[in-house]
Write a structure and sequence with these properties.
The structure holds two protein chains of two kinds. Chain A has helices at 41-48, 70-79, 95-105, 111-124, 140-152, 170-185, 197-203, 221-226, 231-242; strands at residues 3-12, 15-25, 30-34, 56-61, 64-65, 80-83, 158-162, 189-193, 206-211, 214-220. Chain A starts with a strand and ends with a helix. Chain A contains nine helices and ten strands. Chain A has a domain at 3-83 and 157-242: Rossmann fold, CATH 3.40.50.300. Chain A is globular, with a radius of gyration of 18 Å. By secondary structure, chain A is of the alpha/beta class. Chain B folds into two domains: 4-45; 57-259, MetI-like (MetI-like fold, Orthogonal Bundle), CATH 1.10.3720.10. The two termini of chain B are 41 Å apart. Chain B has ten helices and no strands. Chain B is mainly alpha-helical. The chains are: A alpha/beta, B mainly alpha. The interface between A and B is medium-sized, with 23 and 20 residues.
Chain lengths: 244, 264
């Protein structure tokens, strides 16, 4: 997967979340966006996944411009999967319906095919006992795995994960990280915003450190995390590694 | 079991095998208290009961009751349509529609129904040359109730969290699909209790249509009273008749609410 972000600015009501971000990555299968909270990594992920349009600048993934046109971005979102920090499952539907409904309504599966495919995914994530439950009846880790199942159900090219473990306790975090490892094994392309440095180091081949709305440093995960070049990156990583 | 505990709500963890007994006993006491108050009041009045006169006009009560039922149901259907339209206008990006909706809601909610009935009946319906007063009655109740329903639906829609909308966006739903599968079902569920209260209000408020001589339940009761000079014998059946419609509605809604309950 090839990513190219040029002079990307994103402001929300006068506040610049991204202040001219430049990032060029030639080939990566798993990119981790790291950096302090409020530094712009989640915003970057939202722009990359086509959820929102940049205020200015250009974003290309594999040569395809993620446009400013809303319909075009919707078509792009159909080809990718997105997982949120707070799972964002629909509370009025069963876990199974959460996964099957988009297959049926967005991707043109027949109802039986959509349910069949969803059931297979629940088995794969060891969630088959929870298919008929509603999100409120599941734990955070289970919900997040359902959300991952929903994201990958239509066989997307790329899966975007926005701090998928930040709302979870360590045990559930491990559960969800395991699910993400299975995506990597299945050779999904992944972009993940995360505070889990250990995970970024092990699972991601590329890391981009974003702070204060700009790119601080990017490169192979080994290089950026173990030998950061810039003082800002060193400062951030020292704090992170201290706390682990 | 102690006698006093018969009238206490079982605490959490208490074995509540006697729950039905407690319920029945307590309900009985409540009804007893109310009855004593009522009987004492009437005893003080020294009222000469004359149920026979009222009973002679039982068909008139029944007809009025049925008319109220019909007017209310038809009005509710139109009120819901008007309310839904007004809500969607209010959410429209077209500003004139938005203002139209908010002016409608504020005018209707800000003025008494009685005034609206007079204005609508003597000015608008007259100008539009609508002769059938029942049509006018239904129109007034639908427009009146529609404004409240519009607000109820708006609140329901706004109650659907932003994260749900983002989620719908992320799976590639169109705006219509987002509304159909995400917003509408949740908004309707959260609006149910308020919608139900509004339905009960609509039924009770329709009694004001008696002032433009629509022969609904209240007007018919007033007429029986005028003919037989037996006010209480006319108005007691009236109260009970309204309760027969409103109580099941409130029960039903609570039942649906209980069944559809979910946490967000």
């Amino acid at each position: 997967m090839k990513l190219l972000l040029q002079d990307v600015v994103k402001s929300y009501g006068g506040i610049e979340a991204l202040a001219g971000l430049n990032l060029a990555i030639d080939d990566t299968s798993c990119l981790a966006l790291i950096g302090p909270s409020g530094g712009g990594k989640s915003t970057t992920l939202r722009l990359l996944s086509g959820l929102e349009a940049p205020t200015s600048g250009s974003i290309r993934i594999n040569g395809q411009e993620i446009g400013r046109d809303a319909d075009q971005r919707r078509l792009f979102r159909k080809q990718v999967g997105i997982v949120f920090q707070a799972y964002n499952l629909f509370p009025h539907m069963t876990a199974l319906a959460n996964v099957a409904l988009p297959l049926e309504k967005v991707h043109g599966y027949s109802k039986t095919d959509a349910i069949q495919k969803s059931e297979n995914l629940f088995e794969r994530f060891q969630l088959e006992d929870h298919m008929r439950k509603k999100p409120a009846e599941l734990s955070g880790g289970q919900n997040q795995r359902v959300a991952i199942a929903r994201a990958i159900a239509p066989d997307p090219d790329i899966v975007f994960l926005d701090e998928p473990t930040s709302a979870l306790d360590p045990e559930m975090t491990a559960e969800v990280l395991d699910a993400i490892y299975t995506l990597i094994e299945a050779e999904k392309r992944i972009v993940i915003a995360t505070h889990q440095m250990g995970f970024a180091q092990r699972a991601a081949d590329t890391v981009a450190l974003i702070a204060e709305g700009k790119l601080v440093e990017s490169g192979s995960s080994k290089q950026v995390i173990e030998n950061p070049e810039t003082p800002r990156a060193r400062k951030f990583l020292e704090v992170c590694l201290d706390r682990q | 079991m102690q006698f006093a505990s018969l009238f206490l709500e079982p605490r959490n963890g208490d074995t509540a095998k006697d729950r039905p007994i407690r319920k029945a006993a307590s309900l009985l006491v409540a009804i007893l208290i109310l009855s004593i108050v009522l009987f004492a009041s009437f005893a003080a009045l020294r009222y000469q009961w004359n149920w026979e006169a009222a009973y002679r006009y039982r068909l008139k009560f029944l007809e009025g009751w049925l008319t109220t039922l019909k007017i209310s149901s038809v009005s509710f259907i139109f009120a819901f349509i008007i309310g839904a339209l007004s809500t969607s206008c209010g959410r429209s990006r077209l500003l004139p529609l938005k203002y139209l909706s908010s002016i409608y809601v504020e005018l209707i909610r800000g003025t008494p129904l009685l005034v609206q009935i007079f204005l609508f009946y003597y000015v608008i319906a007259d100008a539009a040359n609508v002769q059938n007063r029942y049509v006018v009655g239904v129109a007034i109740m639908a427009i009146f109730s529609g404004a409240y329903i519009s607000e109820i639906l708006r609140a329901g829609i706004e109650g659907v969290s932003k994260s749900q909308l983002l989620s719908a966006k992320s799976i590639g739903f169109t705006e219509y699909q987002t509304f159909r599968y995400v917003i509408a079902p949740q908004a309707l569920r959260s609006s149910l209790p308020a919608l139900d209260g509004q339905t009960a209000n609509l039924i009770k408020d329709s009694s004001l249509l008696s002032i433009i001589a629509i022969s609904e339940f209240t007007l018919n009761a007033q007429e029986v009273n005028a003919i037989t000079y037996s006010s209480f014998e006319s108005f007691f059946p009236l109260a009970i008749g309204y309760l027969i419609i409103t109580l099941p509605i409130m029960r039903l809604s609570r039942y649906i609410e209980e069944r559809l309950k979910f946490d967000t």
